[in-house]
Fold:
Amino acid sequence: MKRLFDFLFSLIGLILLSPFILLICAAIKLHDRGPAFYKASRIGQHGIPFNMLKFRTMFIYADKTGVSSTKADDPRITKIGNLLRKYKLDEIPQLFNVLMGSMSLVGPRPQIEWTVKLYTPEEKKILSVKPGITDYASIKFHNEGEILKGSNDPDKLYMELIHPEKMRLSLEYVKERSFLTDLKIIFLTIKSLFS
Structure:
């Protein structure tokens, strides 16, 4: 049932949002001529790597700086990127990931490889489910960039302040996951976007 819901929701979502997606692509291209999409390497279900799609919100080659956590005042973020990140619009292309089956609408957010290597045996249970576009942690830390703002070492601050709670919430989801839980998280996500 979850896969069918994911497939239908992402397909309908992509069809309805297609004019908006094209508009965002055009805005990104006009701003700095770079590609509209960014492929972020993430670890998926059962520890299998995959490319997570996002609208590109940073200048080209920004990922070569070695910093993986992004603060709100990050100089790598473009003007268009700031707007997209503020309203989580940069996540829309992940509907393609959901449609293709590498992600779900709801599930623990996919992590980069170096953070997954630090997982405890308990935290590795998170990899038993498909990663999602949203989850409890996404709702709680919807302002993650603001939390990291001003930090000289955003990766360190992320690992100390945010990561442990994200792991706790992800494990909570894994233990209590159900279709009703997913609907509840989708509702809470929509509510947080408009609050």
